[in-house]
Design brief:
The structure is a homotrimer. The first copy, chain A, is an alpha+beta fold. Helices cover about 20% and strands about 40% of the residues of chain A. Chain A contains seven helices and 18 strands. The first copy, chain A, has helices spanning about 10-20, 75-80, 135, 150-160, 195-200, 220-225, 265-280, and strands at about 1-5, 25-30, 35-40, 45-55, 60-65, 65-70, 90-95, 100-105, 110-120, 140-145, 165-170, 175-180, 185-190, 205-210, 210-215, 235-240, 245-250, 255-260. In chain A, strands 6-2-3-4-18-17-16-10-14 form a nine-stranded antiparallel sheet. A five-stranded antiparallel sheet of chain A has the order 5-1-7-8-9, with helices on one face. In chain A, a hairpin with a 5-residue loop joins strand 8 (about 100-105) and strand 9. Chain A is elongated, with a radius of gyration of 21 Å. Chain A starts with a strand and ends in a 16-residue tail after the last helix. Chains in contact: A-B, A-C, B-C. The interface between A and B is medium-sized, with 20 and 20 residues. Strand 13 of chain A pairs antiparallel with strand 9 (about 110-120) of chain C, so a sheet runs across the interface.
Chain lengths: ~300, ~300, ~300
């Protein structure tokens, strides 16, 4: 027996709305200890999404035994949209029924109840192996933490110029660069050296272990930036050997993580040449190597 | 000589905007005693609309002798949209001119006047015989009065799931049910037994003479729900022998009435079986028979 | 060296947004004395746009020597949209570089800078000879000054009825008239005879030297009305021998000027007949002759 309770307009619903354009069907696991976790691959198999909602995210969370199920995100979102403002939403799954789950919407006036029986999809088909964070951390050459609204704006502006972004990290700054027919745009975030506590929340912080420069598809970057309104900060972890991770933290243990491979080396070099011509800023430290989506 | 005066943004204009997507050309009758009445059939001849604006709806109402005319609703709405905020709108028809009516917009500053000569259409072609309310009332097995916003929300949510809605009335409650690929949604409004005066306006009241269950096309239901923002309450009258009537009352004597036939029996039975499987809630009392649009 | 500084959301940016749908590529001239001027022809060569931003429009304006360049308006607007709220925008052109100009966006927090290198287009191809205002003034038979919001509303409403507008000026009033399938609309602005100072800003003033009646394409009129939100007043100058000019004044010396030829005589006469039939208002004074776009 799984029972989750949430309010209309809760973080859970808003996060699902934010991932809707990237992923279609997802594999969900619930357990008493870790909470509600969800994994999905985008339709073109370029990005992997991993989500953990700890039990504290829900108004009420009960999970008698671990369970897995496959969910069509769009249908789940459609179901959640059926709630009116102020409705209490209860999601229930029966251990003996793997065909559907029930969402119940109760109005505060108690005069109306709605039940949505949501058909489940095949969970196994959508399961993905995500590398352990412990293993990943040591492989990142640079970790950037920045205000999520600035990340979103940068991705949006750059995608007006071109299809790809070059993200380059040096000790002093992080540069997002795109070029296209109309010209080229380069957005530079400087590492703030001395910060008092109050400034830290709105600052861009860079933990650069090695200089790095990688190219990513801007349409995917825009998808990764979608949850910006729900979280103040975003963390971008870059590596030449494992996929980039874009992470939003949910409370203490939860998260939304997007994993995405950069574009391959040959294009990177061409792009870098182009960038050098345009910007007269070399990217010598570039050690990008081809990499597989999973390590 | 017919002369109507109204303000920009009046009920008259808003109601025409609300019926615009359902009906195209309408037959209008004006008389000194009853006011401005309008009848129209939707383009697919599934729904009939009947409207009565009593003379009190207008700022000024003068009708020297009864007159009929055919109006293209979209053109009338386009004409009314030409008024600027605060304009006084005067609609004039000449007894000797059956080709057009004139809308005059006068700005409160008096420095600008606009005249719109609206071409009329053939009134006869759009005249419909609507059964008398006196006759109809006794034929309804159930009459539901509910907040119009809840009616609209229910129709909207259900049409995200499927194409049809099953409306079932028992002594205790009214159920709106739809099913589709993603699952099924059932919205239940409970009859409030004990209500104080202040609650009555927001309650759902059911006058059930016989249990009844009927199927309707949700796209038409959505059209019937359109005027929800203009009226607090909607009344839904269900019958197995005459078309459903959805009614919004305008002041004391006026109304907007939508008449719509349910879907035919054979489909209803299939739908009911599907519903029974999904919901394990039988609908034994169903006596739905085929019926014609007009009795 | 050219250096312009402006704030996000400034008049400069808003004006470019307003002319975006009419013109594509423009020829720009900057000088220390007159400021930033821009000329463009619409893609169908029906309308000419001439703009002058005096140096006071900018927060900072430096122009060491006169310069010309070709700008793709859409790309410039795209570049300006990259600024975040509160950003300071600097536009720089190098006298030795005719390939691109640089827009720099600096956030007030100083932690982020963005550079947009905007590719220039061929300036010569878009240069237009605009007749001198001194020469033009004497050729106008009528000059109308009216609130720009009323001009915009009239154009919008008329374009719901038909494709063309007939503008007729007599000593007493200005009439905008359109007709189409659904009927015809005639909007009359009366000349206010006695006005106190406070009323003058919202009044319609007509300087009629000779009665005149001309026909214009409403889609172009709508384009001319686009900047209505940025300026209180618009001036419309009508002539049978030179193109109509629609003008918005920017501070003391600046302006946006749209020049547009009326539709040719043969159509005008037919339209006039139609108007006469519909309105029973003759337009005897009409002396419209064929004219070329440039005098």
């Amino acid at each position: 027996m799984l029972e989750l309770q949430l309010m209309k307009g809760s973080l859970f619903e808003n996060v699902l709305e934010a991932i809707l354009d990237l992923v279609n069907q997802a594999s969900v696991n619930c357990s008493a200890s870790t909470g509600f976790s969800l994994m999905a691959v985008d339709t073109k198999s370029v990005a992997i999404l991993s989500l953990l909602f700890p039990s504290e995210v829900f108004q009420h969370y009960r999970c008698d035994e671990d369970c897995s199920m496959g969910i069509a995100i769009a249908d789940m979102v459609k179901a959640l949209r059926c709630a009116n403002d102020d409705d209490i939403i209860t999601i229930e799954a029966d251990d003996s029924n793997y065909n559907d789950i029930t969402l119940t919407f109760e109005s505060p006036k108690k005069n109306c109840t709605a039940d949505y029986d949501l058909r489940l999809v095949d969970a196994e088909r959508h399961r993905v192996q995500i590398p352990d964070w412990q293993d990943l951390d040591s492989k990142y050459q640079a970790i950037i933490r920045m205000p999520s609204a600035e990340f979103m704006h940068s991705c949006k502006h750059l995608s007006n110029i071109g299809d790809d972004v070059v993200i380059s990290v040096t000790k002093e700054d992080v540069t997002f660069f795109a070029s296209g027919q109309s010209g080229c745009l380069s957005i530079v975030y400087r590492q703030n050296e001395t910060l008092d506590k109050s400034e830290e929340a709105t600052a861009t912080l860079v933990d650069m272990r090695e200089p790095i420069s990688l190219i990513f598809d801007l349409s995917y970057m825009n998808s990764c930036a979608k949850p910006f309104a729900l979280f103040d900060q975003v963390t971008i972890c870059l590596s030449t050997t494992v996929p980039m991770m874009v992470e939003y933290k949910i409370k203490e243990k939860g998260y939304i993580r997007y994993f995405m491979a950069p574009k391959v080396e040959i294009e990177i070099e061409e792009e870098e040449e182009r960038k050098t011509e345009n910007e007269e800023a070399g990217a010598e430290g570039n050690k990008t190597r081809g990499m597989k989506m999973q390590d």
